[in-house]
Amino acid sequence: QVLDQWFESEPLKATLATDAVIGAMASPQSPGSGYVLLHHAMGALEGRRGAWGYVAGGMGALSQAIARAAATHRAHVFAGKPVSRVLLGPDGRAQGVALQDGTEVRSKVVLSNASPQLTFLELTPREQLPKDFVQRIQQVDTCSPVTKINVAVDRLPNFLAAPNARDDRPLPHHQCSIHLNCESSELLHRAFADASNGRPSSRPMIELCIPSVLDPGLAPRGCHVVSLFTQYTPPVLAGGRPWDEAAREAYADTVFDCIEAYAPGFKASVVGRDVLTPPDLERVFGLPGGNIFHGAMSLDQLYFARPAPAYSGYRCPVPGLYLCGSGAHPGGGVMGAAGRNAARVALEDFKWL
């Protein structure tokens, strides 16, 4: 409805609608999807409203930059050291964390960038949390339709709509986010309907990026890495079947067949691929249900209700413990707003310790 007010072109509306459903088990017809579109368009990058950017060196470089900035302020970084639990004092206040190797890291405050489910249901002693709070966290909708496919190719994709130059140099569209299978909003809705019935979409929504065009160091000369953000895939297949290797590869084949129709020769250029279904995203990255936002960006899980009513201000029932990740207000996206807000709240409390 929002897009209909502003645009006439169906392919344009459908392409914009992908940002209204990205990461959400919803279709453009779902109530509240307009907010998700707003959430992805409200930001800015270097003064350009609604712009997004690539991180030089890959997304891991962002974490490394944060770590270097922290180290300049004499922070100690424990990389590759999983946390087993939050340590609490006799008064119930957070006093640090215990690592899985037995090391205890003491602190007057603890900020968690993990999901609300991991933070409060696994790392925090359950008896220290109100029952209604625990119930709310357990009920957070984390259903995810996303399957991420990382691809290595030995040449630049060549799209029928905009053929490559003779010298195969990257063109402007190779530097952008390329949306496939979104010629109409009805196509997106049908893809959603497939997953709602426990079937991977037969014509999935595909967002294709080639970051190595802007960051050549990501791939050998002449080769590229292609990032495919696809949906819809159900977390559990029809009949309760899990995502085994055969199901994972069959879906990837469907995605590649779709890309081949737009860019003939793409499948022949593939030298490697990594397929991450919703269960894989949860296992590898700790995303509950594979949800990239740590919880659906639905109207009942936003603002004062994120992650729970009365606890949207980054504090939680455990004094000294703060939530600073995507599961906190204002939600998902690589923008740092939740972390900055949580840090300000923690600093304010720290003055009184």
UniProtKB/TrEMBL annotation:
SUPFAM superfamilies: FAD/NAD(P)-binding domain. It comes from the Eukaryota. Belongs to the carotenoid/retinoid oxidoreductase family. This is PYRD2 protein. It comes from Nothocercus nigrocapillus. The gene is Pyroxd2.
